[in-house]
Recover the amino acids of this structure.
């Protein structure tokens, strides 16, 4: 019996050494407007187990988080991309909280592709409906964070992540300009887009990533004097994305780098179903399942057939044909 030859793009499944973009940390001045924006407006969920006090709050969005400690507010230089189940529902919630955020930097508007929202302290968000081709099989999540970087730095930034962190990178050019795209896990990436506009000074915000090989990047960073904090056995930090030839800082953003042996790695996060309310309630429907169904089927058969070479291979081919 002939077995149809199957061809798969195995490289399409590579995610690289960075396996997760877990959180973005932004200081806020007050939890009340933060609650109105992130929870009531965006429809996200406060972590019920960690940071229950008034000096910090962790907010879940699929498998990622925002960490929002109290202090002088941070503004990320760029924007954060989020996926939410429905833009219609999102706009309704944002319009509801708008009066409560009057006098702040809060703003929102809908475009053909996404909703632009600005938090009370000036951080920018683009929120999209689910799209497997663009963002992976999620209905709620943080697919990317985009930073505005100086002109002429995209290639050096891509090389930094490629050679220091062993991350797949690519350079893209479109109507929005030249950018370095860095894989940060399944369905997640960091984008560094060049701009000719003046970029504000770094104000201390940070992002957190998980890496499979933990010691190799640390060794390369330490060799260049870039480590800023030896946090614990499972974590270290650095700020400068440096040119690997000259050592010049290309862009500054604090990275909290964790190993996949970190106690919090792959922790299950609670995400609520925003449809639940006093007027409409489904028993057992409180939690939102943000993973979308995934196709794991075989590719369509090709014309070329290959006769299995051994009896074992022929038996396996017969079983696969019968499935």
């Amino acid at each position: 019996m002939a077995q149809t030859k199957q061809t798969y793009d195995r490289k399409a499944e590579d995610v690289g050494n960075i396996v997760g973009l877990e959180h973005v940390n932004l200081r806020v001045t007050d939890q009340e407007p933060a609650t109105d924006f992130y929870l009531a407006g965006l429809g996200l969920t406060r972590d019920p187990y960690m940071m229950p006090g008034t000096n910090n709050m962790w907010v879940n969005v699929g498998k990622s988080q925002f960490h929002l400690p109290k202090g002088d507010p941070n503004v990320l230089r760029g924007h954060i991309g989020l996926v939410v189940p429905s833009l219609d529902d999102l706009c309704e919630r944002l319009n509801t909280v708008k009066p409560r955020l009057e006098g702040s930097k809060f703003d929102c508007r809908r475009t053909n592709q996404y909703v632009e929202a600005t938090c009370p302290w000036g951080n920018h968000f683009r929120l999209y409906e689910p799209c497997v081709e663009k963002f992976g099989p999620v209905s709620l999540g943080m697919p990317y964070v985009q930073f505005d970087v100086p002109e002429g730095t995209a290639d050096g930034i891509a090389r930094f992540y490629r050679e220091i962190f062993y991350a797949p990178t690519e350079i893209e050019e479109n109507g929005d300009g030249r950018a370095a795209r860095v894989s940060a896990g399944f369905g997640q990436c960091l984008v560094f887009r060049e701009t000719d506009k003046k970029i504000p000074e770094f104000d201390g915000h940070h992002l957190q990533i998980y890496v499979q090989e933990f010691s190799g990047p640390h060794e390369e960073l330490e060799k260049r004097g870039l480590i800023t904090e030896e946090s614990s056995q499972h974590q270290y930090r650095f700020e400068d994305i440096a040119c690997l030839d000259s050592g010049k800082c290309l862009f500054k953003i604090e990275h909290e780098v964790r190993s996949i042996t970190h106690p919090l790695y792959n922790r299950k996060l609670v995400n609520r179903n925003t449809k639940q309310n006093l007027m409409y309630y489904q028993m057992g429907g409180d939690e939102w399942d943000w993973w979308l169904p995934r196709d794991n089927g075989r590719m369509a058969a090709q014309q070329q057939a290959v006769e299995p070479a051994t009896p074992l291979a022929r038996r396996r081919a017969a079983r696969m044909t019968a499935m």
The radius of gyration is 22 Å. Helices lie at 31-41, 87-97, 132-135, 154-164, 215-223, 311-322. The CA atoms of residues 49 and 58 lie 9 Å apart.
